[in-house]
Write a sequence for this structure.
C-alpha cells in the first residue's frame, strides 16, 4: 500500500493522504479524485461484466421516459403494446419534456429522453436518431386554405398561432418569410405546446404550424398542407446516459422505442 500510495503521489503531484491525530485524512485533491475513480470503476465493471440473458417475462421494473409533446399521443400506444406483450411486468412512466436541461438524465431520474440534439445537450449522453420531422400547416376543415394553391402571401395573410419554446421572435417560419417581404399575423402564442395550438385551430379560423410526425394523431379530421416556404427539417433522437448503455433491460427498451417509431 505504501508503494502504491507513493506512485500515486508522484503521478498526481499531491500527497493525497496526510497524517492527523486519529490517523490519515484525505486532501481536497484526493476527495476530487474519488468521484472520478468511482465512475471509472463503474464503467470498467459494466464493460467486463458477462452478458446476462434477459428474461423479459420475469422482468419487473419501471422505466421513466421524458418526451416532447406529441410523442405519447402518436407513438405511445404502439410502444405500450410492445412492452406489455414482451415484458408484462414492466411499467412505463412518461414525463413531459418542458425544457432542454439534461440534468434528469445525468441524475438518474429519467431512463430515456426524446428530442432534438442541440448545443445545450450534454456531450456525454448517448444519442440515436429515431426519425426526421418537418413543420406543416394545419387548419380546420372548411377553412379558406383548404382550397387552391397556398402561396407564401396567402399563408402569411391568415391569422396564426405561433408555437415556440424560445418565444415568438425565434420562429424559423418567420425567418423564411423575410425574403418574400412577408410577415405572419400572430394572434396567439403557445410556448412549447402544439397540442393546444391544434385544439384551438380545430374550432377557429386560426392557422397552426406544427411538426408533421409528432402531430399525426392530433391532426385527425383537420386539413394539413406543406408550408409554402422552406424551413429546415429536424431529427428526433433518443437520448440516454452512458451508465445505462450496457444494461440489458435498457437496451431492450431502446429497441422497443425505435420499433414503435418505425411503425
Amino acid at each position: 500500500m505504501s508503494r502504491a500510495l507513493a506512485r500515486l503521489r508522484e503521478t498526481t503531484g499531491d500527497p493525497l493522504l496526510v497524517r492527523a491525530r486519529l490517523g490519515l485524512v484525505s486532501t481536497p485533491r484526493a476527495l476530487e479524485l474519488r468521484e472520478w475513480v468511482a465512475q471509472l470503476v463503474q464503467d470498467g465493471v459494466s464493460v467486463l461484466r458477462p452478458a446476462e440473458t434477459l428474461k423479459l417475462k420475469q422482468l419487473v421494473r419501471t422505466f421513466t421516459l421524458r418526451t416532447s409533446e406529441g410523442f405519447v399521443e402518436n407513438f405511445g400506444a404502439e410502444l405500450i403494446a410492445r412492452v406489455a406483450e414482451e415484458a408484462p411486468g414492466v411499467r412505463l412512466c412518461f414525463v413531459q419534456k418542458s425544457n432542454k436541461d439534461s440534468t434528469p438524465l445525468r441524475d438518474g431520474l429519467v431512463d430515456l429522453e426524446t428530442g432534438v440534439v442541440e448545443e445545450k445537450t450534454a456531450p456525454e449522453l448517448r444519442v440515436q436518431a429515431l426519425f426526421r420531422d418537418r413543420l406543416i400547416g394545419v387548419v380546420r376543415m372548411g377553412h379558406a386554405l383548404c382550397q387552391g394553391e397556398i402561396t407564401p402571401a396567402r399563408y402569411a395573410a391568415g391569422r396564426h398561432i405561433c408555437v415556440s419554446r424560445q418565444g415568438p421572435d425565434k420562429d424559423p417560419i418567420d425567418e423564411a418569410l423575410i425574403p418574400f417581404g412577408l410577415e405572419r399575423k400572430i394572434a396567439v402564442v403557445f410556448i412549447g405546446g402544439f397540442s393546444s395550438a391544434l385544439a384551438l385551430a380545430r374550432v377557429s379560423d386560426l392557422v397552426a404550424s406544427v411538426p408533421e410526425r409528432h402531430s399525426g394523431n392530433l391532426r385527425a379530421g383537420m386539413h394539413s398542407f406543406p408550408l409554402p416556404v422552406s424551413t429546415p427539417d429536424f431529427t428526433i433522437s433518443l437520448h440516454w446516459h452512458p451508465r445505462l448503455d450496457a444494461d440489458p433491460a435498457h437496451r431492450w427498451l431502446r429497441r422497443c422505442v425505435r420499433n414503435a417509431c418505425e411503425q
Notes: The first helix runs from residue 2 to 12. Residues 56-131+238-262 form a domain with the D-Maltodextrin-Binding Protein; domain 2 fold (CATH 3.40.190.10). The first strand starts at residue 17 and ends at 20. The helical segments are 2-12, 28-48, 71-86, 103-106, 152-157, 172-177, 194-202, 248-262.
